[in-house]
Amino acid sequence: MAVATLRSVLRCEILLPLFETCRLRDLLCFSSSVDAAAAVCGTASPDPHFMVEYLVNSCGFSPSEAAKFSKPLAHLRSTEKPDAVVNFMRSQGFDGAGIRKVISLRPIYLCCNVEKNLAPKFQFLRDLGLSESDIVDAILKNNAILRHDLHRSFVPKLEVWESLLGSRELVFKHLKKTGWFFFSSVEKTLHPNLKFLRDECGIPEERLSLVLRGRPQLMSQKPESLRALVARVEELGMPRQSRMFVRILYVLHTVSKERFEAKVELMRSFGWSESEFSSAARKAPTFLAMSLDMVRRKMEFFINVVGYDPSFIASQPNLLLFSLRRRVIPRFRVTEMLKSKGLCTRQRKLAGILFLSDTKFMEKFVLLHKENVPELLDILRVAGTCKGNDTFHLASEDKGLADDLICDDEVASMEFERAVALGRSGVT
Question: How confident is the model at residue 375 (pLDDT cuts 50, 70, 90)?
């Protein structure tokens, strides 16, 4: 028995190396035949890492970035198309950072056909009057321009937005600032939203156009989201027929439900009732978009320093729109100093003084007393609202309130505030 077992082991020891040798020979023969077939058929794959090296050497990506962005390009067998795309973009004014941004957003752009896909779009934009830098800015904000069909997608959307905003110049102005609004579906989004706001909400197109100039994204959201936004406005008690309806719609589009509820809780902590909050929002909706910290500091100043009752502020919510640093505190200090000198005998509430234009405030409260109280000019200089001896640092008279809003309102649009200021010219 033991002898038989020994013979079996010896036989395995002898045959195993022979088997391994034959197996290795077969594998080598198979590998050689495959290599030969591949050479004949011309299907040999290049170095799988060649696009990683290309993105590093030709575009300036880091190795880790290049490894990530090369994955959608694994099918490429040469750098012919990437070279053409990169060289074309450089010739159109893109610097290295711009090219990397476009590639990182959509690496497959490196597979575009320059002559058929890219060059016609750049030429079309030039024909519309855009400069080289304008085109670069627009594409960096709206890389979708490179992938959408020029005549089936880009041109129809351009025509719709031109009619909504009132001019092609405004369309391009927004394209250079932000882009995701532009490529919303005309059939599924833009037309249904326009029909809803115009026909169901009764908002005239000229009034709607005024708001869209400041925030075109209002129109490009999903139709169900727009209806929900309208419902939020109506919860504040604002009828659709009111001219303020569309302005509250504009503001609430920038304010999430969470931020809105946080603002409600903040004002409740100061003693506002729900009806007072809704009333204030209807009168001065811009305060809804201001930061909680800004509103808190303004409320504390008016209550603790000026001595206003919270309910009075609720009835005059425009007080919250003024800049503490540039308007409220300087004017409060001026009037307090005049009172201390016995020069402000006429009883005028600070609220009324805040609404005076800068020129009128300067004439009535500063220049009239500058000989006896030269410190008044110092107060305004410290606040940064006065330069030299007696010149206010303002670009124009009719921008007084809008300037203050820009300081404190995180999301207010300059263009929109100028437009709505036309309807409240008596305020400033």
Answer: confident
pLDDT tens digits, 2-46: 434 434 433 444 333 433 444 433 433 333 333 333 333 333 445
Looking at the structure, do residues 329 and 427 belong to the same domain, yes or no? yes
The 3-state secondary structure of 161-200 reads HHHHHCCHHHHHHHHHHCCCCCCCCHHHHHHHHHHHHHHH
Which of the four pLDDT bands, split at 50, 70 and 90, describes residue 216?
Answer: confident
| Partners of 386 in beta bridges | 392
Domain shared by 298 and 339, yes or no: no
Q: How many domains does the chain have?
A: 2
Residue whose pair of structure tokens reads 């109506």 in the numeric block:
234
Give the containing element (helix H, strand E) for 392: strand 391-392
d(CA 267, CA 344): 33
Q: Report the candidate in 217, 189, 219 with the shortest Cα–Cα distance to residue 203.
A: 219
Quickly state the pLDDT bin for 416 (edges 50, 70, 90).
Answer: very low
- Residue 403 CA to residue 424 CA, distance in Å, equals 15
Amino acid letter, 43 = T
Q: Which of 203, 206, 217, 225 is nearest to 164 (CA)?
A: 206
State the pTM of this model.
0.66
Angle 205-211-215 from CA coordinates, rounded to 5°: 130
- Domain annotation covers residue 296: yes
Q: What is the predicted pLDDT for the residue at 264?
A: 96
pLDDT tens for each residue of 99-147 = 999 999 999 999 999 999 999 999 999 998 889 999 999 999 888 899 8
* Partners of residue 391 on adjacent β-strands: 387
Q: How many CB atoms lie within 10 A of CB 161?
A: 25
Q: Do 298 and 343 lie in a common domain?
A: no
**What pLDDT, on a 0 to 100 scale, did the predictor assign at position 374?**
73
The burial of 203, by beta-carbon neighbours within 10 Å (0-12 exposed, 13-18 middle, 19 or more buried), is given as buried
Compute the distance between CA of residue 330 and CA of residue 310 in angstroms, rounded to an integer: 22
Please give the residue range of the domain that contains residue 351: 322-428
User: What number of helices (H) and strands (E) belong to the chain?
Assistant: 24, 2
Check whether residue 415 and residue 329 sit in a common domain: yes
Of 289, 316, 343, which one is at a domain's C-terminal end?
Answer: 316
Is the same domain home to 328 and 428?
A: yes
